[in-house]
Write a structure and sequence with these properties.
8 helices; 21% strand; 210 residues; Rossmann fold; 38% helix; globular; single chain; alpha/beta
Length: 210
């Protein structure tokens, strides 16, 4: 008889752009230790757009659910829950394509999935043992997104002017992202982040693991 596998718990960290998902995910990993936590970022699962010319790629709406390969993400999470390793794709935000390189993810007692739309597909949110939704004021989201895109995604400083937050990102947030907060077990306001709010999330995860 095969030995019993350790119980795997799946935690969602959802919320709009610039709401602090990456920060909270990092704090969770630091608190529980990298050996006990595997992090899966929705951003690596954007659909490959190499079949389109660059101008057509730039015109796509990457804040719409159709931009995400949810079927692959769902399959990988199911495999991790079952105790199997997966090779997740790597996405290039400048070219809007998958690079062809993969990163091996191993199962762990705690799997944290972060992304703006991970609570949107019913079949995906049904996998989570605990879902946390982070909320921030819209002007706060805009300011944080601009800093992130310039520092980490290789986008030029005037990219925000080409696709204004108010005309592109915010409508998708209101239509698709904000409603998913209703599916969360816990909603945390991160407009003015502090240690107590992060601690609230970590305590809920501790209870889940116990």
């Amino acid at each position: 008889m095969a030995p019993d596998r350790p119980t795997v718990r799946l935690v969602a960290v959802a919320g709009g752009t610039g709401c602090g998902k990456t920060v909270l995910t990092g704090l969770i990993q630091e608190h529980f230790g990298p050996d006990r936590v595997t992090v899966v970022h929705q951003d690596h699962y954007y659909r490959d757009r190499s079949d389109l010319p660059p101008a057509a790629r730039d015109a796509l709406n990457f804040d719409h659910p159709d931009a995400i390969g949810f079927d692959l993400l769902h399959d990988h999470l199911v495999q991790l829950i079952a105790g199997h390793e997966v090779d997740r794709p790597t996405y290039d935000f400048v070219t809007h394509t998958r690079t062809g390189q993969t990163v091996r993810l191993s199962p762990a007692p705690l799997i944290v999935v972060d992304g703006i739309l991970i609570l949107h597909p019913p079949k995906l949110r049904s996998l989570f043992d605990l879902s946390i939704y982070l909320h921030a004021q819209h002007d706060t989201m805009l300011a944080r997104r601009a800093v992130r895109d310039k520092a980490h995604r290789g986008r030029p400083a005037d990219d925000a002017a080409a696709k204004p937050f108010e005309q592109h990102v915010l409508p998708m947030h209101v239509q698709f992202v904000e409603p998913t907060g209703a599916h969360a077990d816990c909603v945390i306001d991160t407009t003015h982040p502090d240690a107590a709010r992060a601690r609230e999330a970590i305590e809920k995860i501790e209870t889940l693991l116990q």
